[in-house]
Amino acid sequence: MDYKTYIAAHLPDLGLPSEEIAAAIAVPPDSSLGDYALPCFKFAKLLRKSPALIAEELASSYETDAVIGEVAAAGGYLNFKVNRKRLAEETLARVGKEGARYGSSDMGRGKTICIDYSSVNIAKPFHIGHLSTTALGSALYRIFGFLGYHVVGINHLGDYGTQFGKLISAYKRWGNREEVEKGGIHAVNDLYVRFNNEATEEMEAEAREYFRLIESGDREANELFDWFKELTLSYVKKIYDRLHVTFDSYAGERFYTDKMQPVVEELREKGLLVESRGAQIVDLEQYGMPPCLILRSDGASLYATRDLAAAIYRKNTYDFDKCLYVVAYQQNLHFKQVFQVLELMGKEWAKDMVHVAYGMVSLEDGAMSTRKGKVVWLEEVISRCVEKALSIITEKNPDLENKEDVAEKVGVGAVMFGALYNNKIKDIVFSYDKALNFDGETSVYVQYTCARASSVLAKAREAGIRYENAPPSEVNGPEFELLKAIAEFPATVVLAAKNYEPSCIARFAVDTAQKFNKFYIESKIMGAETEELRAYRLRLTDAARTVLTVALGLLGIGIPEKM
Ligand code: ARG
What we know:
Elements: H1 3-9, H2 18-24, E1 36-39, H3 44-47, H4 51-61, E2 68-74, E3 77-82, H5 84-98, E4 112-116, H6 131-146, E5 150-154, H7 162-174, H8 177-198, H9 201-215, H10 219-243, H11 260-269, E6 273-276, E7 279-282, E8 292-295, H12 303-318, E9 322-328, H13 332-344, E10 353-358, E11 361-363, H14 378-396, H15 403-420, E12 428-430, H16 432-435, H17 443-462, H18 477-487, H19 489-498, H20 503-522, H21 531-554
Parallel strand pairs: 4-5, 4-9, 9-10, 11-12
Antiparallel strand pairs: 1-3, 2-3, 6-7, 7-8
This protein binds arginine (ARG).
Arginine binds at residues 116, 119, 121, 156, 158, 307, 310, 325, 327.
């Protein structure tokens, strides 16, 4: 049990669930007053007492024990001091025992979570707009897996719609096999962009006809479509490999072609389908939303129709406890509508659908533009970041071995971390220089800290020093601040999962790295006054490296041994 939960469980009833109390407990930046603090302001109204009085009463009734050694009231705060030796011993023992699994649990055992993320569009650019969904989704995938959930990662490919008719039309006009084979997705995208730039009424009609041919199973049209799809997938899979992102299913929109009719029928049977100017809709006016379009007047299905079919399919196939959609906030209304329609259909599990919305990513130089053909491909951003990382590393440490590998870890990490460090709903502006700042709130700062720890530990190993079971002989100052941070990790992982907020872990990593560096600078590790102290500090160094490695690992970021 973590300390906050422990404290919450030992407080009298305050009119709030103990989970909420635990979440309200803070770790003050300066531990001279206390290691943990409960602000009592939020209980004042309920208990009809001043926060100061509540804190005082709680302080006098709280029974200290071997875990919490001291409790005191100060202003409206209730401050707790832990038994430091015990915290140190327990934390180090747990990290030592669990290693790379430190912070994991089985709280999700028997539960399934579907996560829809990245969900790229076939034959369209995999652009920087897909960075957040890819980074957030894959981080949540790992975090929930780490907590024992069965996780199903789904790439809901955008592989349906008239754009494929356009593509075929463009290819037939201007394309040839050799060029497309050579240029891959870029060549395909060029064709598509050219079509949009030059489209006439007649071409649009032709495109619709080609799409109809795909739909009706025409062989040539489907062969071309499959070819474009393959080109796109082999391209994006290379990027996924680079980012260490995986999926369990690539069932995209087209997969639901034959699964929409039953949904339409069910809607009709349940009296939810209304005709409106030839189209079939579900009226959502009483929920303050525009209608959800199900079938166009020409009978064609829509994005929402496929999402309804997909939701039902996922429930039937995976029997999920939660189904997450990691999709930009621009689609807030779409998901509200889809979830509402499911509820109206009487799906009691509609409450388990969650739209995990996030903000926009743009580049510092304003290069993110949705104008025709002017998009920033994610691949470019990654490559540029890796290149920049390589030049920084070469300058800092010209003799480093495997510079390319290190640069890959640093550059890819910087891109991912850039998308994960802030609260997900915030719009972010990606800056190469900021993302690669060795002293900033960055992944490279954390990676560098780990490399620093590794180098101390390597020296100890060379000198034949054993420290694995060294008892904590000094539990004040920077050692203790670091230990306390490490002790918070398991609760941080749970918080990240509960709030669908990997940034909790990213912030934890930076904060813990900062605490390690303070310790590293202020306390001599190899040069400690006594052997006992040296062994203990090494053990602490090892624990810090472990927890930082686990934290970045959950975000999909690797750590070089040397930097
Ligand atoms: N392909 C869509 C886009 O790029 C995202 C799909 C999200 N998932 C879903 N089930 N609607 O906007």
